[in-house]
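User: Last request for today: this protein with iron/sulfur cluster, please.
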Amino acid sequence: MPKLEVNLDLIRKYDVPGPRYTSYPTAPHFSEEINWDKIVPMIRSNNSDSDKPLSLYFHLPFCRSLCWFCGCTNVITQDPESSKLYLKYLRKELDLVTPLMNPKRKAVQLHFGGGSPSFLSAEEILTLGDWIHHHFPFADTYEAGVEVDPRTVTEEKMKAFASVGFNRISIGIQDLDPDVQQTIHRVQPHEMNLRTLDWARSNGIQSVNVDLIYGLPHQTTAGFEHTLDEILKMQPDRFAVFNYAHVPWLKKAQAALTPLPPERKMDLLKMTIEKLTSSGYTYIGMDHFALENDELTQAQKNKTLQRNFQGYSTHAGSDIYAFGMSSISQTDSAYWQNEKDLKQYYSLLDANHPVQRKGYILSEDDKIRHQTIMRLMCDLELDYAEMSRKLGIDFASYFAEELSSLQDMETDQLICRDKNGFKVTDTGRLLIRNIAMKFDVYLKTDKQRKYSRTV
Ligand code: SF4
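Assistant: Here's the final one, the structure of the complex with iron/sulfur cluster:
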């Protein structure tokens, strides 16, 4: 992909709060009324004669210290016994849920997220891996990714991840600038990142993603450019450069941070996109960049990219079954989320009770809008005839109001369209959330919800 020029005036114009669309409808719509009694029939019908592939997610919530910018659901502890106990309960959850599932379904994707999966000891990683392989058959080729904190991972743990079958790692780095690191309460010398990369590659884990964040206090364009230059030397396959989401009403520790003024944040964004796209990375959309030959870039070209709670994924057409506190499962018809409080999660399992806490059952309109938003965010285009065929509707009439509301975006060249459909332009890629928002029926009545800003 050639260097992507960023038009800051347009970005400013469209910088409004909006969802990230890892689901549609978004998680704030999940309700406690959708309880386990309502979810079980959804799981049964999803497994009745389905040999649809599975995507498995395990939430491992522990971290040794809190990074003040963090938006994840985590548990801060230095006690190594915590993860041992957690695994015991995770096994109970697996034993409760898997009998509802079709045992022939094969996993094509596995993801350990958190928190910090690298909080686990090497022995615990191997034990959990054994249980997972015992409960689920895996396809001959599958993608297994793990989020790794260079401050807690060791060579022994990396070997354990590799032996469980992990073939991708995501290294949490955020920023190399020592001042920024002090301010966000995450001091991580670069040597730790380099040794993590070395351990991964020497143990056969070849696919590497690096997580960075822009918009943090004290970041400067020159400082962040230095970070990018150093990380580029590591030659990761993918970058996720997240926009710092300042939501202190949800994440109390963020109140200690003063986010960058929007103008400085925009400069960082512009520099980042222009630098990475001129260094051989394709801007996939929503903070993600990947090398031309990476599966993510190829999946976008082949229209098999999918967007879900883990971000972008190459496994379109699989259902996500998620385990652990706060994790979210997803089929075509329903979402369900586990209890977010660790003590509650344990006590529910002590009573042999399901740990699902909230859920959502999609209406026919939700399914149509979900497909539309996901195809738009992944393919960066909508072909009306193809969407009509996929969704069993007359797409242009169904979305007549939404399509006519795109006029401004067409004038601003975020999209270009003809009678058959529209394509998102390079500039439009940066504002894909805003385009997707046009198809979100809930935003019309949702004004009171607080989302992070789109840029
Ligand atoms: S950023 Fe990662 S390591 Fe830091 S607190 Fe959040 S989950 Fe834990």
